[in-house]
Amino acid sequence: MIHKKTRKYIPANLDIKWENLEPVYNELVNRPINSVEELEQWLRDRSEVEAALEEDFAWRYIRMTCDTTSEELLQNFQYFATEIEPKTAPYSNQLNQKLVDSEFVNDLDDDKYFIYLRGVRKALELFREENIPLQTELQIEQQKYQGITGSMSVHIGDKEFTLEQASALLKGTDRVLRQEAWQKITDRRLQDREKLDVLFDHLRSLRHKVALNAGFENFRDYMFQALGRFDYTPQDCYEFHAAIETEIVPILREQAEKRKEALGLETLKPWDVDVDTSGKAPLKPFKDGDDLIEKSIQCFSDINRYLGERLEIMKDNGLFDVESRKGKAPGGYNYPLAETGAPFIFMNSANTFRDLTTMVHEGGHAVHTFLTADLELNDFKHCPSEVAELASMSMELISMDKWTVYFDNEEDMKRARRDQLIDVLKTLPWVAVVDQFQHWIYTNPDHTAEQRREAWIQIYEPFGAGFVDWSEFPDAEANLWQKQLHIFEVPFYYIEYGMAQLGAIAVWKNYKENPEKGLQQYLDALKLGYTKTIREIYETAGIKFDFSASYVKELAEFVRSEMEKL
């Protein structure tokens, strides 16, 4: 069994209630600090409190997403959002101020604390007392997305399916059944379109108020600061979108033409994009959730023994919930447990190939959690998404050579790798669309739901619109954005997937050229947590933090050449 780190400052059995936390915060606020050593001890004590709160919140979130139908689990989550966070926020601001005002702050090791202090100063700059209730409301309202989508199911034949389970039918060779599954999934989503539009309008309005209160013209500009985007600007994002349109979309258009030809179709419909063009049944890499976990442990062990042992530890400690079921929130995530030093992996397996890639993706995040567990301060582990997603997306590609544990013949291995490489390229236009759409949403804060749908279409079309014919399904195309959980729950967290996807291709290229060195550089980069800049972390991994058109082209050509070998 794994055990939480021993607490040195707060009681081991501290019950997370405000009446127990307030004296702790008051002690930190009022403690005299008379040397740089005392300041560092104060930082460690503060970090211990924050780790305890983070882990408590993590379990409330995990349990709620595992069962969105439980009123008790929802209330436990909401208690933290309404009774703990709003009360700790002003104290956190006071503690940040105490730190930067300390006469010993400049005696701290600059190499060790530069990133941390930069973040603290940015948080002070953005903090507004009047935003605390708005952020509490946002925390609660955002979760309504999971409640609405988690309850969605469809009947096909005499069986009821969650939408994730029904989506598995889109890979089948029976085109009539694919169309039926797609239509039912789409109709079910459209049934709640208005409910989700109303929810999103409310979220957008709250977010705009937060931005105005903090002195920004719009929520986009506020979020670039709040997310600590010190390394790139909105203009850089637009240029990245343009590079994807120029360099990636033509390759995918070519692939779509080949797909149309192989399937013998005049046009591709939305239910034709996931079926294998060979006419073979969908890949079945595992039997059930337990088999997926066991095979993934073996796959990671085959890359490096340490990696497999991390997943083994998680299995032994019940830190997986992988199978899809009604009432479970959609999607997948790896949630770090700040005190335990291990994570929880949540996903919605429907026994498809996509579930394999989700598992190795979340497994990459899990390895990252373990590698950073012993960093001195909790904040050192809070990696920006550009780094966090590098960990997961690189693992999808590094693990490919070891997928023999999931597939017992060479032909299936080839199909799986080909599908994965096409998915790698398909990720990029979707990232560009979702990101550009969010730029539009928040720089046009007074738009209507109808204008939002029109904007989505205008942004989606130049990136190929999935390379299918939407002419008979305009409502379905206009509503695709509602599938993306990030837009509702973690606004602006998306362009990082594109940046990290490029980085992951470069990590994989290094790994193919020299497996031992490539893997070591990747692990060395992840061990840094967030103690260096994004650029320095990427350099440690042996790659560039670069999303110029020339770099996009170079890496796309590498992927294309690897696809041609299969």
Content of β-strand: under 5%
Average pLDDT confidence is 95
Approximate shape: globular
Strand order of the largest sheet: 3-5-4
Q: Radius of gyration over alpha carbons?
A: 24 Å
Number of helices: 24
Q: State the share of residues found in helices, binned by percent.
A: 55-70%
Can you put this structure into words, describing what you see?
- There is one protein chain.
- It is built from 24 helices and 5 strands.
- It has 566 residues and is mostly helical.
- The strands form 2 sheets. The protein has a 3-stranded mixed sheet with strand order 3-5-4, sandwiched between helices.
- Helix 9 (193-213) crosses helix 10 (219-226), helix 16 crosses helix 21 (495-513) and helix 17 (410-443) packs across helix 18.
- The two termini are 42 Å apart.
- The model has no long low-confidence stretch (mean pLDDT 95).
